[in-house]
Amino acid sequence: MKSVAMRRAGAVLILMLTFAGTLPTGAWAGSRDFLWKTVSTCLDPSAVDYCGQCSTPRAEKGCAGHAACGETLQVLAEANNYVAFADRKMCGCPEGYFHALAIPRAKVTGVEDPHRPEGIWCFAWELGRRRIGDETVMALVVNPRLYRSQDQLHVHVVRLKPDARQRFTKLPQARVPNLDQVWRTAREKAEAAKFTDYGVLVASSPDGGYLVVVDPVSPEKEFTEAYCR
């Protein structure tokens, strides 16, 4: 397996090469608050001056000048505390490819935030179960602070790469029976491994329950089908 240093260098290069294509053009392009502004201004289409205030309006609203993929918000699931929508990495991808983001409606920066919500894992897993179907190929991923482009917590709902399970066996991990134990287990494993920054990957466990893996680099880039091409 690659050394952590080599994986860090590779992940940084990939992030630099692809970042420009993951966010829309416009006033918020490149902003680390884009996701938070989307959640806080684009979910209620009945809001005053909705089309003027929201840079990526809901597709069903039909705001003028917003028609292409990446210019509208494709909402996939909503709950009182969370929302999920299609990641822009899905634009131009063939039918069957899936990459969504599950996001809290409250301001939560990321894996390091002490207010990170436990329930987001169940919300994201249910979305993946409905949209992907085969739970053995599903993954939920949160990237480390240094390997993310946004400072609003977002769980990637994606498929594992075919060889992912074989490759992440050497990373710190544990099996948990319930998804509400993910954050605590990840923190404990990261502290034991002396990771000052870490990402979290959740997959189904062959023995039942869920596998929680911590990675000091980017589990999204390393182990999941983050891009269709």
How would a crystallographer describe the biggest sheet?
8 strands, antiparallel
Mean pLDDT metric: 88
Structural class: alpha+beta
Order of helices and strands: HHHEEEHEEHEHEEH
CATH superfamily grouping: HIT-like
CATH topology: HIT family, subunit A
Terminal residue distance: 24 Å
Output the strand order for the largest sheet.
1-2-3-5-4-7-8-6
Roughly what percent helix?
A: 25-40%
- Radius of gyration (CA) equals 17 Å
In what range is the share of β-strand residues? Answer: 15-25%
The unreliable regions are 11-28
What is the CATH first-level class name?
Alpha Beta
Key terms:
lipid metabolism; lipid biosynthesis; EC 3.6.1.26; 229 residues; alpha+beta; membrane; CDP-diacylglycerol pyrophosphatase; 7 helices; globular; HIT family, subunit A; 8-stranded antiparallel sheet; single chain; 26% helix
SSE blueprint:
Elements lengths: L3 H15 L15 H8 L8 H4 L21 E4 L3 E5 L13 E5 L15 H12 L6 E5 L12 E5 L4 H4 L5 E4 L5 H11 L6 E6 L5 E6 L3 H5 L6
Antiparallel strand pairs: 1-2, 2-3, 3-5, 4-5, 4-7, 6-8, 7-8
What this model shows, in words?
By secondary structure, the protein is α+β, with helices and mostly antiparallel strands. It has one domain (4-223): HIT family, subunit A, CATH 3.30.428.10. Helix content is 26%, strand content 17%. An 8-stranded antiparallel β-sheet has the order 1-2-3-5-4-7-8-6, covered by helices on one side. The longest helix is centred in the first third of the chain and has 15 residues, at 4-18. The chain is globular. The two termini are 24 Å apart. The model is unreliable at 11-28 (pLDDT under 50). It is an enzyme of class 3 (hydrolase).
